[in-house]
Design brief:
By secondary structure, this protein is mainly alpha-helical. The chain is built from 1 helix and no strands. The chain is rod-shaped. The mean pLDDT is 83.
Length: 49
């Protein structure tokens, strides 16, 4: 085991939470983009009729 101070452990934990938060936000963004794209595609298909 590397000798690791409490401060290091806390920093690692904060970094992990920050990365998780970014992941969650980017997942929300990509979900939003995907649903928008689906809406646009269905609108385009209804316009073709």
């Amino acid at each position: 085991m590397p000798n690791c101070s409490f401060q290091d452990a806390r920093t690692a934990c904060i970094n992990y939470e920050a990365v998780n938060e970014l992941d969650i936000q980017s997942m929300k963004i990509s979900n939003t983009l995907l649903s928008r794209r689906d809406e646009l595609q269905s609108q385009g298909q209804s316009n073709l009729r």
